[in-house]
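ok trying again, last paste got cut off:
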Amino acid sequence: MVEPVRRVSLTPVPRRVKRPGGSRQRPAEAQSLVIEPIRKTRVAEEIADRIRVLILDGTFPAGLPLPAERQLAGRFGVSRGSIRDAFRTLETIGLLATRHGQGTFPQELDVDRLVAPLASVLSYRHDLQDELLDVRRMFEPAVARVAASRMTREDLADLQRILDAQRKKLKSGRSAIVEDTAFHGVLARATRNRVVVSIMATLNDLLVESRKLTLKQKGRPVRSIRGHEAVVAALRKGDGEGASRSVSSRI
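nice, full thing came through this time. structure:
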């Protein structure tokens, strides 16, 4: 059910103050209540919040167009401009999509839409590289610990194939940045947690240049492979703490 947005008058009403002896005094300006007028954007924000709830509870299901702007404006008791502003807000967070000539459609919320705005901001903040590395130090050892208890034979086989490819590239003097990134992707997949997979992919993308520079350091590619070997050995034993320590020691 769509309820209209209530408009509340906030115009202050002056109070009469009695003086001793029955005389009256108008309130001084310093005593008057100061209330800022309601911004138009607040109406749009409230409408956006109402529509968001209606999408999430299934009233407006994904795949079916929303009612027309004019109809929604009438049901909410607001202008069409406020409806358009609300639509833009919801499009920004990926909850709505407008298709030319077809209408405005609710979108399924997925993990990528959750992480993408953060990734977009961080991609322009090169000053946060050191802090992203701190995130890796906190995040990746925990991923390895959880992966150890959920690892399948297929996951272990994929990690072994990545290690073999990494060794071949090392022998030929080629960069193994692709394999290094893929290794951590498989670890994330082994947690069976879609949010972890998405966050790991985002971290890998944001830190790819940093990893390229790191792997160019003398002796670093060899240490990377040895670190991966230690992680895989611990995972084969189901040793989550050992896998976590091995990941932590090579970041």
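cool. Residues 8-13 have pLDDT under 50 and may be disordered. Residues 17-106 form a domain with the Arc Repressor Mutant, subunit A fold (CATH 1.10.10.10).
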